Amino acid sequence: GGGCAPATVSSRYVRTYKYNLEREVGGPVLPRTFAAFHGIAGIARGAVTAVRSISGQMNPVNGFGVANTSLFYFANRLFALWEADFPYAVHVSPETGDVSTIGRFDFDGSLFGPMTAHPKKDADTGEAFAFRYSPVPPYLTYFWFDRNGNKQQDVPIFSMETAAFVHDFAVTKRHAVFTDIQIVVNPTDILFGSGSAVSADKAKVSRVGILPRYANSDREIRWFEVPGFNPIHIINAWEDEDDAVVVVAPNCLSVEHAFECADMVHCLVEIVRIDLRTGSVSRRAVAAENLEFGTINQRYVGKKNRYVYIGIGNPHPKISGIVKLDLEASGSGAVVGKREFGEGCFGGEPFFVANDVDIGNPGIREGEQEEDDGFVLTYVHDEKRDQSKFLVMDAKSPELDIVAEVLLPRRVPYGFHGTFI
Question: Which cofactor names does the annotation list (predicted)?
Fold first, then answer.
């Protein structure tokens, strides 16, 4: 109402090389990264994949990604991302809202390997920052793009001494922040170890690495031990007035269950402060609830923010509701807003959209609008009624009041990360 355009829904597959190949042959050809390579059966799948590659049935140079982890709008392009492959450019028609696949994108040949599904964009400069991780050295490589999408040089991080699961990272105004967590990647474990290439190493001491954001080599990175700190996702990071780096992230407790028994995982949102002058590390929990998949006002990426909108894992990884956190408080006082979806109803990751503000406009200055002036968006599925809907909630209200609700003609599967364009 009120002169608004009607809602449109488009549901399309990203037509990756894997999708097109398997659709053509009528069945699975390329293995899934984590699920397929497990134990003796995983070795067999790897052998079959090798034979298919040698025989010309598939070309591994074209990648085997599914482009289903996240979406990222940058340099006037929309990308569908998966961390073990190149980005795929997709297009949303302004006339119909329909989604189509443009193709695999290598930034004019400057991208030499996969790219994280969690790049970061600085709303003030328009620059983007990214990385890739690998089971072989260098285990971590950092790079960034200018606002026009021109990729700068790779910075291999050779001080990452073992292959770790580095799913996400953060940028501040002066640094890039990486976590070296207790989830490790070791392909030989398929045959000689746990049976899986990805496992937990409880003897390992987690670290946080802080690298100057425009560094030319890894000689400038500094590593700080933060025992038991195992974030899969990082909400935000910034520098405070005392030359310390502050990192906000859900810490994955019982990390050994992260992939096999996710319902046993509890994620505790923590604030970790690293003093770059003294090397001291301090940390505090924000709230006791099981919280993951958080979002903030995108104007505050890399800058101090106050509010976080994050999913309630009950049971993890399903999201039974959304909590609004005040990072300046702690304990029960940190929860300043909450919406439960109801019995049998679960949603996806929330996404914050500022009210009438172009979050990609670098000309917007802090202080022009309150940080939580906007809306929280998500999909919710009612498992009893087999019905999905799209919710728009008032981000400022204590109960995250629903201001719009769109019933959808088909189910939206539980997914990972979305965006607003």
Answer: Fe(2+)
H or E element at residue 154: none
Q: Is 233 known to sit in a ligand binding site? A: yes
Backbone phi and psi for residue 224, each to the nearest 5 degrees, phi listed first: -130, 130
- Beta strand segments in 146-288, E: 155-156, 170-171, 175-180, 183-185, 198-200, 207-212, 222-225, 236-239, 244-253, 266-275, 281-285
Q: Is the model's pLDDT at 366 over the cut of 80?
A: no
Gap between the Cα atoms of 227 and 235, Å rounded: 19
Q: Is the pLDDT of residue 191 over 50?
A: no
Say if residues 65 and 85 touch (Cβ distance below 8 Å): yes
155-156 and 140-145 strand pairing:
antiparallel
What is the spatial distance between Cα 45 and Cα 190, in angstroms, rounded to a whole number? 12
**Residue tagged 């509010």 (tokens):** 307
3-state secondary structure of 26: coil
Tell me the C-alpha distance between 62 and 32, whole Å.
15
Q: pTM for this one?
A: 0.91
Question: 3-class DSSP state for residue 203?
Answer: coil
Q: Which fold has domain 106-275?
A: Lipocalin (2.40.128)
Q: Which residue bears the tokens 């909108």?
A: 309
Domains of the chain, by residue range, sit at 17-64, 106-275, 286-421
CB 237 within 8 A of CB 120: no
Give CA–CA dist 124/365, Å, rounded: 8
pLDDT, tens only, 48-84? 666 666 766 668 789 889 999 999 999 999 999 999 9
Asked if residue 167 belongs to a known ligand binding site, the reply is: yes
Cα–Cα–Cα angle for 332, 338, 343, rounded to 5 degrees:
115
- Whether the CB-CB separation of 181 and 188 falls below 8 Å is answered with no
| DSSP letter, residue 47 | H
Residues of 347-373 as b/e, b for ≥16 C-beta within 10 angstroms?
Answer: bbbbbbbbeebebbeeebeeeebebbe
Dig out the tokens for 58 from the structure. Answer: 């598939």
